């Protein structure tokens, strides 16, 4: 009875091509790491390295909008007071 080998491997059977797999495996791993970092940078919404991403704008409450409109001069004092009382209650 000869040496015991698996059905899928015998000496010299796959030995000619398996060393060529390592460069492809290395390229695959490096590409995966590169794409993961690139994806995390895309999530920063344009912030550069070492910068915090900009905060999303929070919608103003109705009272804040009325105050801004009054400050811009879009509302008179009477309109502002009426709206402020309506929104406060």
TrEMBL record:
Record's keyword terms, sorted: Membrane, Transmembrane, Transmembrane helix
Transmembrane segments: 16-37
Family matches, as InterPro entries: SHOCT
Residue span, SHOCT domain: 62-87
Protein name: SHOCT domain-containing protein
Organism: Desulfobacca acetoxidans
